[in-house]
């Protein structure tokens, strides 16, 4: 075995301090086989054992999880499977060990490659604390290795739905090439256009309907039946369902089954980063779909439109727990907004803060004193000095957080809250915030969160509390999970696959990090 482990203990120690041990094959194997006394784990002189067969089986099936079997050296493992020479068996054992550990990590926590490429953008990818020695020790004690492998991927309906979609799109067959259809002007219901023939074929394929059954002899006619199909296509692709084939609809129709496959794989990877157990009662926010969903006992209770961060103030992806609600909250203006947005307004109008019911304090400490903002020469105040002031907007109808704030403490200082800008919820795309998530129906959401453990809350009771106009904090016990996700492919309650626009332009970056050498 030692011929296939080329790493010294000193190298192991220095590497572990810098990067996860799983990153480097030689370091990982040295650590494992040092623990085993350089004894083989999966093979004997007679060849690979039953547990080795189970490991190979799941490495071969990696494609069903949106992973690439080539990343786990499946071809090389199979080439050496029947070679009973001691040298080959020793190498086969190390191949099985490293690739099994790597697969377990990847299917459980997501590949770590995106984090290594961009730690800020893909902060949730992989598990830096993954310990292959502990994992291996646990596996060696397991009686049912098959059940263990089956339990590794997320079991919730979103991931499993994408897994089914992967099979569906893998099985699509298309006669001819998926050429880009050029659109110079919109095609409307009632129009005759030769491109309608190709559009019919694509929609039929994507609906998994096989060959289109024509309701008219004229295949190039944009008839009523096709209009219904176009509207359904638009709804399933995050588009305005106007029934018109315009630029945005054509862009989605031009995406080939292979492009959709890549998109599904990217989104399966994102789900592996999240907690695999979402909770019995939880909130899920899909940034890319501008929507919030509430679930309880596996059932979707309701959903609502939300507003998410602008492209330059992107809402982060993470999970947390809602601990309390703040009714009629204060708004402590973030220093970045104070210096970048409030200071320019004050230089134009010294009464600006007063007009917005925002009070000015000398600093962010508890012993800070309130200052009259109308007597300051704001032209003499620098942005860095402005950031040192504390600006606090009192509760009221003009408060930027609206009437309810939903708090789940996190490193990003992100939370859910009400908003004054109700008209923005009618927009098809809604990236307008500084990173926090604005909800369209705060009273309904508050009632959902508070209604537990014998406490009966409805929207009327919440509205009464809001209308009192006084600041009040209510604890959520037990706390309720909230999952902030970024899914450009997702599955609805009926199992229907849906696609969204990639609002932050992350899909291509993630795909290259995952699959490009």
Low-pLDDT sequence parts: 5-18
Radius of gyration from the alpha-carbon trace, in angstroms: 28 Å
Alpha-carbon distance between the two ends? 29 Å
- Give the strand line-up of the largest sheet: 3-4-5-14-12-11-6-15
State the helical fraction: 25-40%
Number of strands: 17
Strand content: 15-25%
Tell me, rounded to a whole number, the average pLDDT: 88
Supply the number of helical segments.
19
The main sheet comes to: 8 strands, mixed, barrel
Secondary structural class = alpha+beta
Globally, the shape reads globular
What can you see in these coordinates?
The chain has 517 residues and is α+β, with helices and mostly antiparallel strands. The chain is built from 19 helices and 17 strands. The protein has helices spanning 9-16, 25-35, 50-60, 74-79, 86-109, 113-117, 132-141, 145-151, 157-170, 195-206, 224-235, 247-253, 257-273, 335-348, 352-355, 383-388, 442-450, 459-467, 507-515; strands at 43-44, 47-48, 281-286, 291-296, 299-309, 318-327, 331-332, 358-361, 370-371, 390-393, 404-407, 416-417, 431-433, 437-439, 472-485, 489-491, 497-499. The strands form 4 sheets. Strands 3-4-5-14-12-11-6-15 form an 8-stranded mixed β-barrel. The two termini are 29 Å apart. Mean pLDDT is 88; it is low at 5-18.
Keywords:
alpha+beta; 16% strand; globular; four-stranded antiparallel sheet; single chain; 517 residues
Topology of helices and strands:
Elements: H1 9-16, H2 25-35, E1 43-44, E2 47-48, H3 50-60, H4 74-79, H5 86-109, H6 113-117, H7 132-141, H8 145-151, H9 157-170, H10 195-206, H11 224-235, H12 247-253, H13 257-273, E3 281-286, E4 291-296, E5 299-309, E6 318-327, E7 331-332, H14 335-348, H15 352-355, E8 358-361, E9 370-371, H16 383-388, E10 390-393, E11 404-407, E12 416-417, E13 431-433, E14 437-439, H17 442-450, H18 459-467, E15 472-485, E16 489-491, E17 497-499, H19 507-515
Parallel strand pairs: 3-15, 5-13, 12-14
Antiparallel strand pairs: 1-2, 3-4, 4-5, 5-14, 6-11, 6-15, 7-10, 8-9, 8-10, 11-12, 16-17
């Amino acid at each position: 075995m030692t011929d296939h482990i080329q790493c010294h203990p000193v190298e192991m120690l220095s590497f572990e301090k810098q990067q996860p041990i799983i990153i480097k094959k030689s370091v990982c194997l040295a650590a494992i086989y040092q623990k085993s006394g350089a004894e083989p784990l999966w093979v004997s002189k007679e060849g690979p054992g039953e547990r080795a067969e189970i490991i190979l089986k799941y490495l071969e099936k990696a494609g069903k999880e949106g992973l690439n079997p080539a990343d786990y050296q499946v071809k090389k493992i199979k080439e050496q499977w029947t070679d009973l020479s001691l040298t080959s068996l020793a190498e086969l054992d190390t191949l099985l060990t490293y690739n099994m550990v790597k697969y377990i990590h990847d299917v459980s926590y997501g590949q770590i490659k995106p984090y290594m490429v961009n730690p800020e953008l893909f902060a949730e990818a992989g598990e830096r604390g993954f310990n292959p020695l502990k994992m291996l020790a646990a596996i060696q004690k397991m009686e049912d290795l098959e059940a263990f492998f089956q339990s590794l991927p997320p079991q919730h309906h979103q991931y499993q739905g994408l897994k089914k979609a992967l099979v569906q799109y893998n099985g699509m067959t298309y006669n001819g090439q998926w050429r880009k259809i050029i659109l110079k002007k919109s095609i409307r219901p009632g129009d005759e256009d030769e491109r309608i023939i190709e559009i019919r074929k694509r929609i039929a394929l994507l609906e998994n309907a096989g060959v289109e059954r024509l309701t008219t002899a004229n295949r190039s006619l944009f008839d009523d039946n096709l209009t219904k199909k176009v509207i359904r296509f638009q709804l399933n692709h995050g588009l305005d369902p106007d029934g018109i084939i315009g630029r945005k609809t054509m862009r989605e129709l031009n995406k080939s089954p292979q492009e959709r496959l890549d998109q599904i794989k990217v989104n399966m990877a994102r789900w592996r980063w999240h907690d695999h157990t979402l909770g019995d009662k939880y909130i899920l926010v899909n940034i890319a779909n501008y929507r919030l969903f509430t679930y309880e006992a596996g059932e979707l209770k309701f959903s609502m439109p939300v507003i998410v961060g602008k492209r330059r103030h992107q809402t982060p992806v993470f999970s947390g727990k809602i601990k309390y609600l703040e009714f009629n909250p204060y708004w402590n203006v973030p220093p970045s907004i104070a210096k970048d947005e409030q200071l320019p307004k004050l230089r134009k109008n010294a009464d600006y803060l007063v007009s917005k019911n925002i009070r000015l304090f000398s600093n962010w400490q508890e012993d800070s004193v309130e200052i009259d903002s109308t007597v300051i020469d704001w032209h003499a105040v620098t942005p860095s000095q402005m950031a040192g002031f504390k600006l606090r907007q009192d509760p009221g109808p003009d408060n930027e957080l609206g009437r309810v704030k939903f708090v789940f403490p996190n490193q990003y200082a992100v939370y859910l809250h009400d908003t004054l800008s109700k008209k923005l919820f009618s927009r098809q795309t809604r990236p307008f915030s500084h990173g926090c998530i604005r909800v369209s129906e705060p009273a309904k959401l508050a009632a959902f969160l508070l209604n537990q453990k014998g406490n009966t809350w409805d929207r009327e009771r919440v509205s009464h509390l809001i209308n009192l106009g006084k600041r009040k904090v209510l604890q959520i016990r037990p706390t309720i999970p909230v999952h902030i996700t970024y899914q450009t492919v997702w599955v609805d309650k009926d199992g229907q696959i849906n696609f969204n626009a990639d609002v932050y332009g992350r899909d291509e970056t993630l795909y290259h990090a995952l699959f490009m050498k």
